[in-house]
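Quick start: read one record
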Amino acid sequence: MTTDTSLHSERRDHVLVLTLDRPDRLNALDASLREGIPAAMAEAQDDPEVRAVVITGAGRGFCSGVDLSGARPATNPETVADPLDELGWVGRQALAVHGLEKPTIAAVNGVAAGAGMSLALACDLRVGSSASRFRTVFLERNLSPDSGMSWFLPRIVGSSRAADLIFTSRDVDGEEAYRIGLLDRLFPVESLLDEAVALASQIAALPPLAMRSAKRVLQHNAEVGLEDALRYEMAGLSYARRARNDAVEAMASFREKRPPRFTGT
């Protein structure tokens, strides 16, 4: 997998753990991470042995957003986004994480702010602890939301709550994040990553092709009416049934009262 020194990768059976590894900067997104995260998603997509991905941060932060330590003043033309680049690196990062056809889990071990919060939002699931902290940040920097936040956040917590978090840029701790749906599971601080990997392993043990279909159906049907959603569900069923060996194994393991062993074939 990726050899980027700012992005550490580790395989735990069928789970890929990606750790943003700039703890001295609370894992702020520098040029190396901006390139490394989409590249790691592409590698995970192409690796049949990877069935789920966990993203976390080293040290006491998940990701504090864009690294501004070397930024020039905003009046400098070099800092203005290329008008011909309609997505920017933040958009490509959001698409890379959200578009991965395998389940993703953000293990939010500390602060997730700005584009770092958006990185967590782009994942399918978010788990955290009492040490987790979210902050939208953008308005504090005289910016409006980017990196997918304006799309992800309302879908996760609702439109008015998203407006509250963006307009006030207030801190949201782990307990509140769990209460409002920003976090799907709340674990002890000391076992967060192990719990996240255990959850990912539970997901990875299920049929890979059916899991890919389930993720596609969930994402597609969030944006369409019921009739279109029902049609897409049927298409998803047909896609999942292409894994004939897993279909046989599902029935055999049920009859034999044993854990299934799915291969994706």
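DSSP finds ten helices and ten strands in the chain.
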